[in-house]
Amino acid sequence: MLFSKIAEDLIFLSAEDIGFVEIGDKVCTGSSMMPQKKNPDTLELIRGKSSKFLGYLASFFTLEKGVVSGYSKDFQEDKKILFEAFDEFYSILFAVYQVFKNISAKKRELPYHILATDVAEKIFREKKMSYREVHKFIGEHIKIHQKLPESLTFEESLKMKRTPQSTNPDFVREKMRVLENRWRLLKGNITHIVSRFSYYNFEKRVMNEIGSLK
User: Fold this and answer.
1) Centroid of chain to Cα 113
2) CA 168 to CA 161: how far, in whole Å?
3) Single residue among 108, 135, 151 that ends a domain in this structure
4) CA gap 2, 118 in Å, rounded
5) Would the pLDDT of 193 be above 70?
6) How many CA atoms lie within 13 A of 180 on its CB side?
7) Which domain holds residue 17?
8) Are residues 169 and 156 in the same domain?
9) 104-116: per-residue pLDDT in tens?
10) What is the DSSP string of 27-93?
């Protein structure tokens, strides 16, 4: 479901009326009728394919729910579900990788009031006013002057953030470091799983070839 959400976010952010990111031509298709149109087909297919995993999960649980403890022959059917899910996951993972190789940010003029909340937090901290008073002050200032009472850059706004889950660059770098360490721990297990699936697919192809020779 994470890939589905990523795809939907990028489709939204790359829409012409939003325009925060540009999806490269290598992962888009044109329109047979409108020469100016660029369709984010790769992202739409990622979003669509992600829904199949709910079906895989339902199939797996349905298979498991009606059997007694121990091994039953029913479980030979779970391999088909698992291997098909892995193949789909691998194709989606490759497509997501290609999308991020062909994506770029776009410069865009933003409305002056987009950092109003950040300015309110800054004034609240510096002037020791209650947030209710700051909120009222900034709202009235924008209404009268059509601008913020203080200037604030996006860089300053990011550095003001203090919670570990925020977009403060220091916290983002720390989170990336934690994820990189976690990935190193999981990499060995994932490599083992992938090799087992690859062996299964190779064995399956060999058996099919042998069967065709009979």
Assistant:
1) 28
2) 5
3) 108
4) 29
5) no
6) 6
7) 2-108
8) no
9) 888 877 888 888 9
10) G-EE-SS-TT-EE-HHHHHHHHHHTHHHHHHHHHHHHHHTS-SS--GGGHHHHHHHHHHHHHHHHHH
Q: What residue type is assigned to position 36 of the chain?
A: Q
Q: Are 96 and 3 in contact (CB under 8 A)?
A: yes
- 96 and 39 in a single domain? The answer is yes
Please check whether residue 174 is in contact with residue 164, taking contact to mean a CB–CB distance below 8 angstroms.
Answer: yes
Question: Taking each helix axis from N to C terminus, what angle separates 76-101 and 169-213, rounded to the nearest 10 degrees?
Answer: 130
In 3-state terms the chain splits into helix, strand, coil percentages (rounded to 5) of: 70, 5, 25
pTM for the whole thing? Answer: 0.64
Position 194 scores a pLDDT of: 58
CATH number, domain at 19?
1.20.200.10
Mean pLDDT of the chain: 81
